[in-house]
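Colleagues,

Please find the record for the two-part complex below.
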Amino acid sequence: MSREIQLLATGMRTLVEDLGRAGYAHLGVPTAGAADRAVHRLAQRLVGNDESSAGLECLLGGLALRARCHTIVAVTGAPAAVTIDGSAVASARPHALAPGQVLEVGEPTHGLLVYVALAGGVDVAPALGSRSRDTLSGIGPDAVQPDQVLRLGEVDPASARSLQPDAWPLAAAAAPGEGLVRLDATWGPRDDWFTPAARETLASTTWTVRDDSDRVGTRLAGPALERVDGGAGELASEGMVRGAVQVTRAGLPVVFGVDHPTTGGYPVVAVLDPRSCDRLAQCRPGDQVVIRPRTLPGSRAPVKQAGLK
Amino acid sequence: MELRPVGLEAVLVELGADDPTPARLAEVVRESVGGGVLVEVVPAARTLLVVARDVEARQSVARALPRLVAQAAAESGGLRDPAGLRGPGGQSDPAEVGPQGDPVTLRVVYDGADLDAVAQLLGRSREALVRWHAQTAWTVQFCGFAPGFGYLTADEGGVDVPRLEQPRTRVPAGAVGLAGPCCGVYPRASPGGWQLIGRTDAVLWDLDRPDPALLAPGTRVRFEPVRQA
């Protein structure tokens, strides 16, 4: 019996993702990978996989698949109803699937992304060491489609100890919460390009996630952030990271996501912590966030009277 | 040089005119920092971004960087300023900038849609612009925008070309463009705001090659005029 699953429904968009292809940014290749790293890791662990195995990242649920072999499945991320052959089962727990059994994931009540892990991992051909879809540059497998059959990798029997979810602390903590989302960040690298009033505005505003947000970047609506130079100066392109809060010429923040371009020419006022990047990735258009930047210990304090070079 | 914080796991090295180029410092950082510490080393126009594995790794890299900048400067014998990227008057020895090896030669048909406009802008004839472009030695300073897209600068005698006011929604793969002090070749069809002077049939990016990118930071490039790609 071949180790396979068949997709029956794929919702708005379902992508194969793992932890991405780090190490190629200097060639212009985004890292990609699961947009909510923590819940991807959790799902993979729950089914006994290495955290770097590939699973499914499902935008707003609506996923259905049929097992063609005996396997183990876990669903994490945005809270959604999960059923096996129509019977409700718990999220963030491993479940056995027998050949012919159907797993269905409903629409999440809040949050954006549901993650599905299968024992052995989704086994598509890797590109540059990763099976992840990179939506910016088109590297990695296309979004999966109904009727598509996906192969699963071999199961490593040595990893069976992972099948004890309560013994592992992230299990309780990973699902996105409701209400205002707090994003922790550190100032810089280009906080000195902004007026003190703009930095105050960044930290005190309740920002709204715009509907033109995606895996490349989350766009935030709110008051414009004023630059010291009034927006006249040009920043030479520089390397970018996930979580970078870039401020466009119009003064609006765009927070870079997993598929972000590797370099950019807008100043970055602050950078989100990795866990806050995960939280932001789960925000829907209309959700509200606050950004709480702090000065990184051991780095220079944010300048009071900024001047451009 | 100046270090700027980039979140919990990364640091940005801002390099001045007396410092080594970002591409050169990138080499030294890769050679000198132990395995498992570095996640990304990304040179750009005036900066080097170093992404480390975690907070502790970032701290150790940040501590080592002033020494590595000095080492890169010493090994290259001082100034290495790619023309145009750090103001006028910059001269650089192309042999110092990149990895060893022969320059990559790209065959170009100079029939770009903006060729005449750029020539006019620079106050040269179309022929003189082509001659200059093809006789100039270029070096990839950094990559970005898309996989395999290199930002090339002239080793000597740079130009300054404004981007298009209105970027094109589709630039074909292989298009050769100019913007600011840089030349670049579009690895695949994409939107783009660079002024197009020609096209090449070279494959800039191919995932099936052992080295997918034809142009990497430090690669030296020559353009050869041809009638037909």
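Chain B has two domains: 2-75, 94-225.

Comments are welcome before we finalize the supplementary table.
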